[in-house]
Amino acid sequence: MNENRETILEIRDLSVGFRMYDRGLKQYELNIIRKMDLKLHRGEFLAIVGASGSGKSVLAHAALGLLPDNAVQKGEMIYCGEKLDRKLRKKIVGREMIMIPQSLTYLDPLMKMGRQVRGLHGTKERQKEVFEKYDLKQSVSEMYPFQLSGGMARRTLIATALMTEAKLILADEPTPGLSGELAQETMQQFKGLSQSGCAILMITHDIELAVNYADTVAVFRDGEIVDVCDASAFREGAKTLTHPYTRALWEALPQNHFFETIPAKPTEPKVLLECRGVSFRYGRGDWILKHVNLQCMQGEVVGLVGPSGYGKSTLARVLAGYEAADEGEVLWKGGALPKKGYHPIQMIYQHPEKALNPRWKLKQSLCEGWEPDDALLERLCIKKELWQERWPNELSGGELQRFCVARVLGPETEFIIADEMSTMLDAITQMQIWQVLLEEVRKRGLGMLVITHNMALAKRLCDRILDLSEMN
Prior knowledge:
There is one protein chain. This protein is an alpha/beta fold. The protein folds into 2 domains: 181 residues, Rossmann fold; 201 residues, 3-Layer(aba) Sandwich (Rossmann fold), CATH 3.40.50.300. A 6-stranded mixed sheet has the order 6-7-8-3-9-10, with helices on both faces. It has a 5-stranded parallel sheet with strand order 15-16-17-13-18, with helices on both faces. A hairpin with a 2-residue loop joins strand 9 and strand 10. The protein starts with 6 loop residues before the first strand and ends with a helix.
């Protein structure tokens, strides 16, 4: 049926690599995408899923001409029958071709959000309409990125795609940090745009969400498309999925098999972290947290859920001591939070690129607090060559997130706060990482607070689940 529709984007024999240097300054090429062919038609909603670091985001960046100077690109990309070169990109990007980036670092920290969302071609009237759709107050227009929660920032990025009448939208992980309701509304927006003739190429690790709205699913692995199937094949269950890797991804989801065994909790756990009547606001603004009470035990995994913008990440920073509560108190083992030495409370952030010093090579960042052994790195699916001499911007979002997990598992860590930390991981890697974290929590008697919008994940991982909208 697609073959009878106009082809919006065609990729022919595309290969993408990066020129790299080893310790002896000998140049080599790191191949990311290998001889890829793909077609996207008018009105088609294509979801790309697969392993972290398999080249999904690189494909989108290649289409937009955003690859770095050391990139080596071969093959052709055709847009509406024309070769997609620099001249054509200058004409269509921001008007006919829109990108929703994965990383929030694409937001200009010195520009107010209203101006960023409107861009060069949007209007204030259209911006107001879109803000209302995504439950963003008009006051957000006058805010800077650092003043927004992760979910609010994500919604503003999505809003940029609705400023113009686009023919092609490239959405790279558009839903992490959004509540289930907002994520579904976003997908309905995309579906509506595709039904009106816009071509949607969405890169995601949220397979369940994607297959409920997409028409077609392409599965990436090691820089190649290993499977392309109708989204309905996923909805009918694993038996209808013919490729082994596609079937393994589906089976690894929390609502499917995930992992079967969870180590037992300690028999006599002690209270590690507690907050009593905690209230917090920035300056003289509205209260973000109001009289919050929370208690976390040794060896216990506590889930924290709630709508976007309700203060989950803010509460995490208060618990870790990065922000001071305006009212109430935070207790660590019944006393004050430690202020010197290695901090026993470690955070795994939602956006890993913000947690690493871009001027440090990955080995330096990893060994800042402790030096893990090879066995732990292997359990976390990290190979030494991935991080030893590389910079943060040379890894995918999923690779960076695995790396950030390794950093927090030092011998002096006693409590872990995981803030939407697995949204950039494919289902198989997500399952493996959570298995490692749960084993460490139970074996070492750590505590863990899991902040998530994924209720299926929370139910599989957590001993207790708290809803901040009911506590706040």
